[in-house]
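Sequence in, structure out.
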Amino acid sequence: MQVRIIVRGAILAGLAGSLSGCGGIGSGDSGLFGRREPTVYTGTTTQSDRPRNSMTREEREYAGGDTGKNSSIWDAFNSTDPNNTVEVNKYLWQASREVLSFLPIQSVDPFSGVIVTGYGTPPGGGRAYRATIYVTDPALDARSLKVALATQGGPVDAATQRAVEDAILTRARQLRIQDSNL
């Protein structure tokens, strides 16, 4: 009985010592969800070994750190500005709708850049496809467009998906040229 009490006390003391050594669970700087020391790029050297409070405000902003107020992972979800939206390229958006016009649209969200379609058969084709289009950036660029195609049997091969992406990009460039000629 006496040994059991001593072992429990030793375990609790070890746990308390390790938590106090790392700053505790809820200290905010434990590294799991807390802030970490930023690495500031100055051209040739990094200044991450310098204490955080010795950095200027501009250096903290450049490093992605806070600017004087505490921040956490939940700040991304608690934005007070309702105008924070993802900008999408209007030519990619319109071209996606035109190229895949044979697919019935199930969901459209122009603020996040997502178009979800149901199953449909292309003209002259025998297979039914469905697509999810994601326009991620306002630039008219291949990196701004992500297309996921699937059949009822599963995802399509990469060549078919690439051909659809190329068709959307080509149509988007045509739409942009038409707009610039006006």
